[in-house]
Write a structure and sequence with these properties.
Elements: E1 4-9, H1 17-27, E2 34-39, H2 45-51, E3 57-60, H3 65-75, E4 78-79, H4 81-86, E5 91-94, E6 99-102, H5 105-119, E7 129-133, H6 137-148, E8 153-158, H7 165-173, E9 177-182, E10 185-186, E11 191-194, E12 205-206, E13 214-217, H8 225-232, E14 236-238, H9 240-262, H10 272-294
Parallel strand pairs: 1-2, 1-3, 4-6, 7-8, 7-11, 8-9, 10-12, 11-13, 13-14
Antiparallel strand pairs: 3-5, 5-6
Helix pairs in contact: 1-9, 1-10, 5-6, 5-9, 6-7, 9-10
């Protein structure tokens, strides 16, 4: 089975995707598999994809996520629900007869949060309530993840409510109760997700009477003041590296399954054994890089 994949974006030098996917391929015994990175802007994406048809799949980061969905509509590629609903995508996979576009950030958030959210006591008055900082593309992914995690009410904390129209419309279409509030006070919630860059998170006030809950910072900075504050106020902190790895696990499983389809001996991208091997390899690679950086 031969796999050739890559991560695309601008800037791209900071991306941990090559580290993660190469580790997964090694763990699966795919020694000939390749995973590269390309610095690419929005206007270059269409021609790049057309000229690299030998690649079985791509991971996409900013600023390409919305453009990929636009191209899917133009070319008639298959959009799964995560990409179709959020309007953003981070994965393209070429299968035997179709090209699939997906947003694995949703899976990444769900799988990063599910173990802790299921085992932790939630605030009694807010057991199905979530708070999301920001209202951009990642906030849309967070909203879908909140629905999968059983949340029915989501409040978006924003500086400019006019920019929240997309997530509010999406939430209402999903049958959820959604609203906006100033980026200042976090009310009791079972789940609090920051989708903002670390430098854009202001000093926040936290409502008293908090009892349990989980907090995720999707930014994977080495230190998160948001998570430290959340922990101080009784929430279980989940670092963004968990979401980073879990969304990459979903991508890697899709790449492997697509390559298997071409070889007529495919793997199921939802196979938990496959995902377990990939996840273990990716976490080990990330831990090894962290240890080297601090060694």
């Amino acid at each position: 089975m031969t796999i050739s994949a890559a991560v695309l974006g601008r800037p791209i030098t900071h991306s941990k995707s090559p580290l993660l996917h190469r580790a997964a391929f090694r763990a699966l015994g795919l020694d000939e598999a390749q995973y590269r990175s390309f610095d690419l802007g929005v206007d270059e994406l269409d021609s790049f994809l057309a000229s690299h048809r030998d690649q079985i799949g791509f991971s996409l980061t900013m600023p390409l996520k919305e453009r990929l969905v636009e191209l899917a509509h133009i070319h008639g590629w298959e959009l799964d629900d995560t990409a179709g609903l959020t309007g953003v995508a981070n994965t393209l996979v070429r299968r035997d007869t179709t090209t699939l576009v997906s947003n694995t950030d949703v899976q990444g958030i769900v799988r990063a949060l599910e173990p802790s959210l299921g085992s932790r006591r939630r605030p009694a008055e807010a057991s199905d309530r979530a708070t999301v900082l920001g209202a951009g593309a990642t906030a849309a992914s967070a909203l879908l993840a909140c629905r999968e995690l059983g949340m029915t009410t989501v409040e978006f904390l924003v500086r400019n409510p006019d920019r929240a129209d997309h997530v509010l419309e999406l939430g209402r279409g999903l049958g959820m109760s959604v609203s906006t509030a100033p980026l200042s006070l976090i009310a009791p919630s079972a789940l609090v997700i920051s989708t903002l860059p670390a430098e854009a998170v202001p000093e926040l006030r936290w409502s008293p009477g908090r009892d349990g809950g989980v907090a995720l910072d999707v930014a994977y900075a080495s230190e998160s003041s948001f998570l430290r504050a959340a922990e101080t106020h009784g929430l279980t902190p989940i670092e963004g590296t968990m979401m980073l790895v879990e969304q990459a696990v979903a991508q890697s499983a899709m790449f492997v399954a697509a390559a298997g389809d071409r070889a007529t001996s495919g793997n199921d991208p939802e196979d938990e054994n496959l995902r377990s091997i990939i996840a273990e390899a990716m976490y080990r690679a990330l831990d090894g890089q962290s240890a080297s950086a601090h060694g």
